[in-house]
Amino acid sequence: MISSRRQTHRWLMTALAVLLPWLAVSALLQRPEIPPVTSTAAPLFARSDLGAAEGEGDLLVAFDWPVQGTRLKGQLVLGETLQLSLIAEQPLNLADPLLYWSSTAGTTESLAQAQLLGSLAGAGTHRYRLPVVALRALRSPQPGLLLLVSPLDQRIVASWELPPFSVGGKRS
Fold first, then answer.
1. CATH number of the domain that 75 lies in?
2. Residue 171 covered by a domain
3. Stretch (H or E) spanning 17
4. Quick one: pLDDT at residue 24?
5. Has residue 8 got a pLDDT over 80?
6. Which residues pair with 90 in a beta bridge?
7. Beta bridge partners of 161
8. Are residues 148 and 79 in the same domain?
9. 135 domain-assigned
10. N or C end of the chain: which has fewer CB within 10 A?
11. What does residue 80 show for φ and ψ, rounded to 5 degrees?
């Protein structure tokens, strides 16, 4: 290599060695502050038909559902629709767990016939509208189950049996 090109190359590499780290650090300092995603951050975790579930109406039952060492606190509320509200005491050790309602026992065969209520990912209160068939099933001797499912391997992680209620909404 010619001596003049060698000298130019050395100055250029020295300038890049100083300039590039300085640019990287200044870019990290200038990046915007983005708050963490929660379950209430629509439209990431909300379905359009579930967004208006407010939890107003007659409280049918309040329950604690133990799942993987944490407790899900829940309420079934009967208003214009049957609504389910769930709050996790701690984050679940599952990637994007899904909540299903099934009218049959919690087996893998019933999962194929179960109805998806929504995702239980993120923090905060999760509200779901239960399907009309779940409201009818609550008035029968076998009201069905809530199933918490791992979407990775379609495995039922936990299930909770809904209590039966009479026609007026009271426990039978």
1. 2.60.40
2. no
3. helix 3-30
4. 94
5. yes
6. none
7. 145
8. yes
9. yes
10. N
11. -65, -30
Edge-to-edge strands, sheet with 125-129: 58-67, 70-78, 82-88, 125-129
Indicate whether this model's pTM tops 0.85.
no
Q: Using CA atoms, how far apart are residues 88 and 142, in angstroms rounded to an integer?
A: 26
- Reported residue count of the chain is 172
3-state secondary structure of 100: strand
The answer to whether 97 touches 120, Cβ cutoff 8 Å, is yes
Paired tokens of 7: 């000298």
Over 60: is that where the pLDDT of 152 sits?
A: yes
Check whether the bond before 43 is cis (ω within 30° of 0).
yes
Side chain identity at 61, as an amino acid letter? Answer: V
Q: Are residues 76 and 148 in the same domain?
A: yes
Residues 21 and 66 in one domain: no
Angle at CA of residue 153, ends 111 and 76, nearest 5°: 45
46 domain-assigned: no
